[in-house]
Fold this protein.
Amino acid sequence: MGLFINAYSHGSCLVSDSCHYNSHKDSLTSNQAFTPDDQTVFICAGRHAYAYHSDRNCSALSSCTGEIKYTDESYALYTMGRRPCCLCWSNAGPQCKDDRNTGDNPDGGSAPFAEKKAIVNSTIAVTAITLNLLVLSNDVYYSPALSIDSKSIDGKAIAGFAHNFGFRKTFDRAALEYGVVYSSFNYQNSYYINDDLHTYTSQYNYWGFNISFVHNIKSSFIYKHDKVYGGLALSGFNLNNTPGLGFIVGDLYEINNRLKSDFRLFYSQRIFQIQVGIIFNYQKKYIWQRWKEKKQ
């Protein structure tokens, strides 16, 4: 099999399948980001290709519009910024990429056009859902948070930052909350070049959702206008992973008739968050209730 030729002395070059292994192996120098145990991987040199593959016959490469070439895994990952293919790697993880949308689509449209169409359709759907929630809810909330991922890519707990925002439907002593969470984590990665350890930081951003039900436990617990509450939550920290159950305990302080400060601790099967946010009551009566009052 062929391998990547030294990028420092020969320029950025990938080896095609027609090359012979030994002829290129002899040209490697001590500066080349390659270790003897590194695995040969395949990449698509065409447009809209973001993954590297363990098998040249991977189905994700069937739509490749460019040449299929191969290199060592370290160069594909750390220099080219490619990610493991979601299809041909069994342990790819949430950071994997799928190149099946590379090039032209079966219906004759191009991938950029399909992506734009998907974005437009998604925008319409999100707008429609948001408007419905806006009409049926009472509060809107925003809570920045320190977020700790207990099962990161390397299996170690790691801290990041998250933004929680959404709507609340209030009841007499309880509230139903539904919203989204955007999390950002920096992972420390390491690899070897000629037995020398090198590290670099990669950032991963995740979109998820949160649905929770909270109930007041005690009023005027610390201050005159605060309420201690607890509840349960269904949390999807990452849309690529299975949602998990969690619980919430917090303290709500009423600043005025419509604005409240909110401090809470959130714990689920994977994520622990310390949240400090605000809740704004934008409607105490629903639209149809106000219309009915005007007609009377």
